[in-house]
Design brief:
alpha/beta, nine-stranded mixed β-sheet, 10 helices
Length: 304
Amino acid sequence: MENSTSNAVVCFGEILWDILPDVKRPGGAPMNVAYHLQRLGIDSKLISSVGDDALGRALLEFASEIGLATETIQVHEQQPTSEVIASVNAEHEVRYEIVYPVAWDFIRWLPGYETLLKESTALVYGSLASRNDVSADTLLTMLRFENLFKVFDVNLRAPHYSREVIDRLLKAANLLKVNAAELGILCSWYEAALQEEAAQVEYLFANFQIDEILITKGAAGASYYTREHKFEQQAFAVEVNDTIGSGDSFLAAFLSKRLQHADGGSTLEYAVAMGAFITAQSGACPPYHKADFEGFLISRRGNQ
């Protein structure tokens, strides 16, 4: 991180349309993270791909409207723009049917990315965009840049992942972000007897080069571990609208503070509050200003 010349965060992976029963919205975890980073005043870039079709042009227009540069979003002439069929159950949990193949399965390495990555601070990546070799190879090239703080946002969507791919991505990560269920799945591959969160975290620290682990737990809040410290934050009570993108907004808020070297406790509080703020609204990328969110945090902090 010390060699970076800017605070830009590069987000790699999917940009898509979330198709809900009554509405269609732009989405994709990397795009959502980039959106919220921008809202919070952090320069972000999205490396992805859309199809040469009406849906792709609409996504490029959306990206431009929210302040994301579209030059790093490729247009694929043969593959369609991604659509994901999302359904929400009575507990506000979201299930996804993810179409394959689509444009972001074929994100090519472009020479201009080298300068961008050398001048950036962090790289956010997930597992979904590695389901196809073209995008996976591009990501592996990006992970070789030693100046980048590498943030692995695990996003296990069966059947679009394998232990082999996840293991490779884990080995490159500086910070691992998972939910409680994903943490259990990961550790079951390596040491099935580990059931307690603290033991699972200790195992990952001992067997990978990861320095920080961030765990979201829904209504139970979140935990943040470094090799020296542990931080806990309870959830903020809100009336849930939907949970789409709440984890992505959580990660963006966390990074916005983490990259400014804020202390772990306040950084985790900021992230949990953002997750609640977005959960109370509709969709992954609702319009808001940073001051709106920070006003929400102040008001909720007083109620805890």
